[in-house]
Amino acid sequence: MVPDLTMRGQDDPHGRTITARPPTVGQLAARIHDLAARPGGWWRLVGFDAVPVTISLDEVDGVPAWLATWPPGYRTTVHVHGKTRVSTLIAGELAEVVIAPDGVTERPLKANRVRVHGSRTHAFTNPGPAYAVTLHA
């Protein structure tokens, strides 16, 4: 006689609840790096409206990606991300304003560098005369 090893259809033979792990910072960064290397797949979606435009691209291995355009002079509200996210500046200028207990700092973002956004209080501004384009995961 052959024993039944299927455990009554359970995914885990020990009865534990299996939860999906969130993507790592490395997986998020790799996703952004891959997208930035293939602008032919998303550049046509860039919109130049008077308000910021955010467009969902796709989701690969549980990692959603989106693209954003920032009009000249636009500033986000001050916010904190609930999850770790990454982004990269593709075109234009953006500056990040970080609000911390020891003060407020503003620094320009460098193009084509992956930026990790953790749980800090910040805002973004487009100080330049042209639209800024970013990719996010």
For the largest beta sheet, what order do the strands appear in spatially? 1-2-8-3-6
> Order of SSEs, N→C?
HEEEEEEEE
Query: Please, what is the average pLDDT?
Result: 85
Assign a percent range to the helix content.
Answer: under 10%
Instruction: Please tally the helical runs, counting DSSP H or I stretches of 4 or more residues.
Output: 1
Q: Please tally the β strands and state the result.
A: 8
Query: Outline, from the CA principal axes?
Result: globular
Provide the structure class.
mainly beta
Q: Distance N terminus to C terminus? A: 52 Å
Question: Cα-atom Rg, whole angstroms?
Answer: 20 Å
- Tell me the β content: 35-45%
**Main sheet: strands, sense, barrel:** 5 strands, antiparallel
Query: Which parts are unreliable, with pLDDT below 50 for 5 consecutive residues or more?
Result: none
Protein described:
- This protein has 137 residues and is mainly β.
- 9% of the residues lie in helices and 36% in strands.
- The protein has 1 helix and 8 strands.
- It has a 5-stranded antiparallel β-sheet with strand order 1-2-8-3-6, with helices on one face.
- Strand 4 and strand 5 form a beta hairpin.
- The chain is globular and about 60 Å long.
- The model has no long low-confidence stretch (mean pLDDT 85).
